[in-house]
């Protein structure tokens, strides 16, 4: 597998396997850009409640394992605009205006403990094994605003967590943030939107839009024409990485969240299987 991992260097849309983000194949797939659909259901619809630590206890089956977390960096042209490195001292930094993430704590905590750290305007991420991370905006008074099941809701943080552990993720995106009071106001103004009124494809896009106010987080906020200015660099090890190119941040976020749901081990297995299939196909062509 070592030689195959070393080959995971730089691929474009056409060179990577694509799959329905819901995890099931459709008879007539819709149009695709990169590795996600232009139109797709909100992935948060797929989230299932997790047993609360305060209740029956989080089972081994759905306990989040930080060792299996996918580390990655996102670039717009040569500018690093997002970075998640689990291990200290590995940050690439880059001209995103915020430097690297060296020394940033990405450990998770029970929601009751997390409340003690939250300030209005903070972004919160809830995580569990085999689930897409769920993002929310903390608005004060123990409450968050979040996109869940195709509706913008105002819930208590402990309820929104559904028993998952959480952490603050203000530092992941390097875009300039709005003032905290503006973040809170923006989030609260969206409460009640549902269905066709929604302009975000995931809880992360909604929360990041509230904090940064950038149209790139909206569905269809960027034209998918011409070159592919966004790069998703997945760090497989200290020396090996896998890079994908995208025409929009929206599509990149959907693929990155799919990777988060898979976990590092499953993602590496998927990439290795793709390389093996590609090698076999080339061998068959050469034999003809």
Q: Could you give a short description of this structure?
A:
The protein has 288 residues and is α+β, with helices and mostly antiparallel strands. It has helices spanning 2-6, 111-114, 157-161, 180-189, 203-212, 249-262, 264-287; strands at 32-33, 36-37, 71-76, 79-84, 123-127, 134-140, 143-147, 152-156, 165-168, 230-235, 241-246.
Overall 3D shape: globular
Order of helices and strands: HEEEEHEEEEHEHHEEHH
Query: Biggest sheet, open or closed, and with what strands and sense?
Result: 5 strands, antiparallel
Strand order of the largest sheet: 8-7-6-5-9
Question: Which value, in Å, is the CA radius of gyration?
Answer: 19 Å
The termini sit apart by 27 Å
Q: Number of helical segments? A: 7
Structural class: alpha+beta
User: What amount of the residues lies in strands?
Assistant: 15-25%
Question: Which blocks of ≥5 consecutive residues have pLDDT under 50?
Answer: 1-42, 45-57, 93-103
Instruction: Let me know the number of strands.
Output: 11
Helix content: 25-40%
Mean pLDDT: 80
Tell me what you see in this structure.
With 288 residues, the protein is an alpha+beta fold. Helices cover 25% and strands 19% of the residues. Helix 4 (180-189) packs across helix 5 (203-212). It is globular, with a radius of gyration of 19 Å. Mean pLDDT is 80; it is low at 1-42, 45-57 and 93-103.
């Amino acid at each position: 597998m070592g030689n195959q991992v070393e080959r995971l260097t730089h691929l474009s849309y056409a060179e990577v396997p694509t799959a329905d983000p819901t995890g099931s194949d459709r008879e007539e797939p819709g149009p695709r850009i990169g590795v996600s659909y232009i139109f797709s259901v909100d992935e948060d619809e797929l989230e299932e409640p997790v047993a609360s630590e305060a209740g029956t206890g989080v089972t081994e089956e759905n306990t989040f394992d930080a060792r299996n977390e996918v580390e990655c960096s996102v670039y717009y042209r040569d500018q690093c605009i997002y970075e998640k490195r689990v291990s200290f001292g590995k940050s690439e930094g880059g001209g995103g205006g915020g430097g690297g993430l060296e020394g940033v704590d990405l450990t998770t905590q029970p929601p009751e403990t997390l409340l003690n750290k939250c300030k209005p305007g903070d972004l919160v991420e809830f995580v569990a094994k085999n689930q897409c991370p769920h993002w929310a905006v903390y608005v004060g008074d123990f409450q968050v605003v979040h996109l869940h099941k195709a509706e913008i809701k105002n819930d208590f943080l402990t309820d929104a967590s559904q028993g998952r552990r959480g952490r603050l993720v203000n530092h992941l995106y390097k875009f300039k943030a709005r003032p905290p009071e503006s973040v809170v106001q923006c989030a609260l103004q969206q409460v009640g939107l549902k269905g066709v009124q929604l302009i975000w494809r995931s809880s992360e896009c909604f929360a990041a839009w509230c904090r940064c106010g950038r149209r790139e987080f909206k569905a269809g906020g960027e034209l998918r024409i011409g070159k592919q200015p966004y790069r998703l660099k997945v760090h497989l090890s200290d020396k090996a990485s896998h890079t994908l190119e995208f025409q929009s941040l929206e599509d990149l976020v959907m693929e990155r969240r799919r990777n988060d749901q898979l976990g590092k081990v499953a993602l590496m297995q998927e990439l290795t299987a793709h390389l093996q299939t590609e090698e076999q196909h080339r061998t068959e062509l050469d034999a003809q």
